[in-house]
Amino acid sequence: MNDKSRIPGIEFLRIIAMLMIIASHMNLHGVVNNGLLPSGTFADRMIASSLILGNVGVGIFFLITGYFSQDKRRKTVSKKIIADVIFYSLVHVVLIIAIGRIEMLRSFIDFKWDTSTVKILLRTLLTPVTGENWWFVTTYIYLLIFVAPILDKINERMDGDRELLLIGCVLFAALISDFLSTPGMRILQGSGYYLIGKYIRNRYPGTGKSRMKMNRYAGCAALFVIHSILMYIIYNSGSAGLYMAAYTGVTVVICPLLVGMIFTIVVNGEILRGGGKYIYTLAETSFGIYLLHEAVYVRELLWDGIIPMKKFWRSGYYLFYSVLTILGIYIGCFLISFLFIKFLRPVFISFINEIEHRILLFFNVSGTNAGE
Questions:
Q1: How many CB atoms are closer than 10 A to CB 219?
Q2: Residue 302 DSSP label
Q3: Percentage of the chain with pLDDT > 70?
Q4: Cβ–Cβ under 8 Å, residues 144 and 70
Q5: Using CA atoms, how far apart are residues 81 and 47, in angstroms rounded to an integer?
Q6: C-alpha 273: how far from its chain's center?
Q7: In b/e form, how buried is each residue of 109-148, taking b as 16+ CB within 10 angstroms?
Q8: Could you give the residue ranges of the DSSP H alpha helices within 38-101?
Q9: What integer best gives the mean pLDDT of the chain?
Q10: pLDDT tens digits for range 196-229
């Protein structure tokens, strides 16, 4: 099968997924975590709940990875992500020390250490990739390097029905793991979407018939409405039973179906048939945009300081301000990420390649000596 990794529509989908993630972070950190949600009107609470689309955006990224799963691409993709993480970890360290965290330095002098800040600082410096400073990146790297090869081998021996059963079991296991707060939930969830991507590539026939197109559009719209209603219940209902039912429905059924439906619309070439370097450039910066705006103290600066979320929430024009905020964060982070990719990423990748070469050389030399 031809490599379709540069389909303009799928590259555009990466951009949409990142906008969904930014919208989700805005409403989770800026509205829910700041205790603003109960004070809003029904319309504003519905808008905020509907814009918590991080599960959809993250699912799209994992699904795209499964769709384009190739052993030869994993190493290159991993190096790019690691280069990005190292750079933005350094940026994060500078922000921890320089912006609004001077009290940390004072606490060192007074021997009153802010242990949480110290842990984040050390984790960012010493384990930028594996330390879960950005849970999505840590999960993505683990999935790409360790889990995906195993899933590919299992997938090769399955027919379509068994693939669907495996997807359902993995997503249900992720749900149980989430409720029990056990390790591995995110890997399981990412694996479920990864397998959906592989299923679509291997089994989904696709069609260009107008009636089927309309069915997909209608199905996608219906799933989005259901997703919005369930998210409203999750964040506004005081009933534990309703919460568990809504959360289960979103995690195991609605979100996977919505992500798959969106992707099948795109992969059949029904949107953005044209495209070019501008779409590819925007899509290439997606990881950098995530790493920059979701770093711990950048997140605090954005939603607790720079962006007046309380003012927006009480303005009566929350949807308008939401759109401006999401686009503003995307554009600002894009510019920084673009400059990094153009001028600094090659330097970081060269550094990673040199480290890799030295490690391999060391073990080869050690092996030779041991043999002698």
A1: 15
A2: I
A3: 85
A4: no
A5: 33
A6: 25
A7: eeeeeeeebeebbebbeeebbebebbebbbbbbbbbeebb
A8: 42-50, 54-67, 71-98
A9: 86
A10: 999 998 887 665 556 667 788 899 999 999 999 9
Token readout for 366 is 């050690």
CB atoms within 10 A of CB 243: 15
pTM given for the model = 0.90
DSSP string, 123-153: HHHH-TTTS-SSHHHHHHHHIIIIIHHHHHH
* Burial class of residue 273, CB neighbours in 10 A (0-12, 13-18, 19+): exposed
Half-sphere CA count of 228, side-chain side, radius 13 A: 14
CA distance 207 to 271: 14
**How many other C-beta atoms are found inside a 10 Å radius of the C-beta of residue 149?**
12
d(CA 222, CA 220): 5
Quick one: pLDDT band at residue 371, thresholds 50, 70, 90? very low
The two three-digit tokens of residue 206, written as one number: 């696709």
pLDDT confidence of residue 70? 67
| Token pair belonging to 348 | 């970081």
Around Cβ 344, how many Cβ atoms within 10 Å? 13
**In the 8-state DSSP scheme, what is residue 31?**
I
219, 180 contact by CB (below 8 A): no
Whether 197 contacts 67, CB under 8 Å: yes
Q: How far apart are CA 52 and CA 31, in angstroms?
A: 11
What DSSP designation does 68 have? T
Euclidean distance between the first and the last CA atom of the chain, given in angstroms as a whole number: 47
**Other Cβ atoms within 10 Å of 247 Cβ, number:** 17
**How many other C-beta atoms can be found within 10 angstroms of the C-beta atom of residue 225?**
11
